[in-house]
Amino acid sequence: xxxxxxxxxxxxxxxxxxxxxxxxxxxxxxxxxxxxxxxxxxxxxxxxxxxxxxxxxxxxxxxxxxxxxxxxxxxxxxxxxxxxxxxxxxxxxxxxxxxxxxxxxxxxxxxxxxxxxxxxxxxxxxxxxxxxxxxxxxxxxxxxxxxxxxxxxxxxxxxxxxxxx
Length: 165
What we know:
The protein has four helices and eight strands; from the N terminus they run αββββααββββα. The protein has helices at 2-12, 69-75, 79-95, 148-163, and strands spanning 18-23, 26-33, 39-46, 57-60, 103-107, 110-116, 121-129, 132-141.
């Protein structure tokens, strides 16, 4: 595995934005992101095989009135925050299944993407519908525990989604 990591590092070296470190089957992709400020974002992924994998599709939960609350919430954010959230969604989409620190199970078929930003912490709650991630709810955390109101809203949207099938 260390040889694969060394080869990947050689390929990525010209960009000097990425570094792969081997740790058993777990690779750490360290990506430097920033506009003036340099931030390090750590991604964890498990390589089970070297064969191509299928990727998850992504769609937004749509209410009965036709609105998409998560999409509307993302549009209200700054471009930098949207980029960070988009990268995290894409990482889950391309690397599923993932675990901590990026993705955590909330139970009942709900998962949360844990997005750390410079000033605040965002969470995107999603469920899986076949091979598609359905983004149910997005919010900013102010405390360690997921607020009950946000969890209840996510569960309500999950029930509506399953009922509409």
